[in-house]
Amino acid sequence: MTRGCLMYAHDGDIDYGSQAVLAAKLAIKNLKIPVSLITDKNTLDNLKSKFDLLPFDHIIQVERPNNNNRRSLDGKSVQFINTNRASAWDLTPYKRTLLIDTDFLIFSDILNNYWNTQFDFLITPGMHELLENKNLNDYQLNPYTIDMLWATNILFSKTSETKILFELVEHIRSNYHYYAGIYQFNPYQFRNDHAFSVACHIMGSHGLEQWHGKLPIPLLFKDTDLIVDVKPTGQITFLIDNLASCYVARSIDQDIHIMNKNSLLDNLDQLLELAND
Amino acid sequence: MTKGYLLFAQDSNEVNYSKLATACALSIKLTQTVEFNNVSVVTNNIGYFDADLFDHIIPSGALSGMDARSRAYDLSPYDQTVLLDSDMLFLKPMDYVWERMSALDLFVASAPQTHRGQLFHYGFYRKIFADNQWPDVYSAWTYFKKSDTAEEFFNTVKMLTDHAGEFISLGLTNTGLETLPTDEAFALALIILELENQAVFPNWGFPRITHMKPAVQGWKENVADWHEKLRFTIDSKGQVKLGVWEQAELLHYVKKELITDEVIQTLRAAI
Asked: How close is the nearest chain A Cα to the Cα of B248, in Å?
């Protein structure tokens, strides 16, 4: 069975293409798997202008999705384009695919333990945060409906059931306000985490069974956390909760989800060094 | 050997238990196979009940509430009985539970779960159980066979409830109890008769009872009435959802007002 990693990158205010190069090189190094990229012409042109050699097994060019999702980063409103994730089932070149966000950096081989599980679809059920003041909106769609799954990383096989799941995600995206009403979450912006959470709940007979498997929970660095040092040994130092009390945290040899894209890109060269053999 | 479910419906000014018992009986007829769908009711409102739905409509006479339930052994028309709370709905076949219970003289359920299917133990309302390490039993599903063991058990429950005040003053003064509710009386009777290991099997994990008291649902906020947060829906096939959660296990809905004439009509139509 062919297996590989897949990611999406559409440049907007953020250079998602460069993030994808970093995330791909780390996946190749630490999981020893090929990586494919789904992107648009503009992002691909940007990538080719910045990198002599791209690390991707396949580059799948698609139309750039038209959406106006925005999030706040460093006090600015930035665009992010994330509405075509449901196409992964159709577009993946692999029979079993690890689908990751480009800000999910793989520094371990722990995900290799999940290629041969009984589940055709696995997803991350949460994130480890370093501080206790969690925003509950990141962990449940609503206290009285369902817990949130993180679409940051997903592992799936191409089966008829997972096809239904991805079609369901697209259906939820197309009828987002309806599902936001049923599951009582804020419909202001489309969020893949919400769409996949609802889809998994429905696939599990509305909660009667757990249809999906669970991937390991990675460490989360939030958009207020700053990377302050990257050592060649792989040790990454963060300033945690930069906007309030400050703490220092270090991470080494573990998979991390870095939500502060600006900080990630500011340290891109040093992080790319860690992806070299 | 005859088998069946036994319900109590002691109507009061506040609660129409007969309506709840009717809904429960309809859900049994809807979901259980013929061998396991007999239902009888003990009631103070015999005119309410539909003889087509119940094998036996048994007048409770002067008995009320707990007094009546503690007489379940004497009042049951069956050789093997499952005594139920009336505020419950059956949502799937329970044959497999009968098969396991039939080898026993007495069985009291001990696998409560939230509406999300999460098992819990010694829930919020059971401090007295946890403090005293009483068996965490739910009398809402109590199986008994006509047998010396079951008779002795119900006689002990009767003794405890008939003399609840004396019993509490003897050894339970620090519990705040003024009467002995059914679950507490059942737990104590099991301890007194040393029947816990013969009648309580938490490791079975079934029958699961979805217990809808709000404080055991795992919510962070104090919720007085779960129905404010979870919409109760029943479809034309009698399938129930609480909010976005499909239900399949025994639903102990607690909130009596849920059972409207419309719900009864839906269940009748589904049958």
From this structure: 7
Distance CA A188, CA B136 (A): 45
Residue in A17, A146, A30, A46 with CA at minimum distance from that of residue A98: A30
Task: Work out the pLDDT band at A74, boundaries 50, 70, 90.
Answer: low
- CA–CA distances in Å: residue B179 to residues A120, B17, B61, B169: 54, 21, 22, 11
Residue B245's DSSP bridge partners are: B242
Q: Which residues of A touch B230 (CB under 8 A)?
A: 144
Domain boundaries, chain A: 3-275
Instruction: Give me the DSSP letters along B29-98.
Output: HHHS-GGG--EEEEES-GGGS-TTT-SEEEE-TT--HHHHHTTHHHH--SSEEEEE-SSEE--S--HHHH
| β-bridge mates for residue B6, sequence order | B40, B83
Are A187 and A206 a contacting pair, CB within 8 Å?
no
CA-based nearest distance B230→chain A, Å: 7
Note if the pTM is more than 0.80: yes
What Rg do the C-alpha atoms of chain B give, in angstroms?
18
pLDDT in tens, B76-95: 999 999 999 999 999 999 99
pLDDT at B65: 63
Q: How confident is the model over A83-117, as pLDDT tens digits?
A: 889 999 999 999 999 999 999 999 999 999 999 99
Cβ B220–A143 below 8 Å, yes or no?
Answer: yes
Chain A residues with CB within 8 Å of chain B CB: 143-146, 182-183, 201, 205-208
Calculate helix-pair angle for A176-183, A160-174, nearest 10 degrees.
Answer: 100
Q: Name the CATH topology of B3-270.
A: Spore Coat Polysaccharide Biosynthesis Protein SpsA; Chain A (3.90.550)
ipTM for this prediction: 0.83
- Tell me whether residues A207 and B246 touch, CB distance under 8 A: yes
- Mean pLDDT to the nearest integer, A14-43: 97
Q: How large is the average pLDDT for residues A12-19?
A: 93
What is the predicted pLDDT for the residue at A246? 82
Kindly determine whether residue A207 and residue B245, on different chains, have CB atoms separated by under 8 Å: yes
Residue A69 — very low, low, confident or very high, per pLDDT cuts 50/70/90? Answer: confident
Q: Do B117 and A207 touch (CB under 8 A)?
A: yes
Whose structure tokens read 């999981």?
A: A31
How many CB atoms are closer than 10 A to CB A77?
A: 9
- Decide if B244 and A145 are in contact by the 8 Å CB cutoff: yes
> In this structure, is the dihedral angle defined by the CA atoms of residues B159, B160, B163 and B166, taken in order, positive or negative?
positive
Residue A242 banded pLDDT, cuts 50, 70, 90: low
Q: B246, A201: Cβ pair inside 8 Å?
A: no
How far apart CA A10 and CA B200 sit, in angstroms, is 59
Domain A3-275 falls under CATH 3.40.50: no
Q: Report the residue of chain A nearest B229, measured CA to CA.
A: A144
Is pLDDT above 70 for A177? yes
Do A212 and A204 touch, CB atoms closer than 8 A? yes
Instruction: Give the separation between CA A256 and CA A258, rounded to whole angstroms.
Output: 6
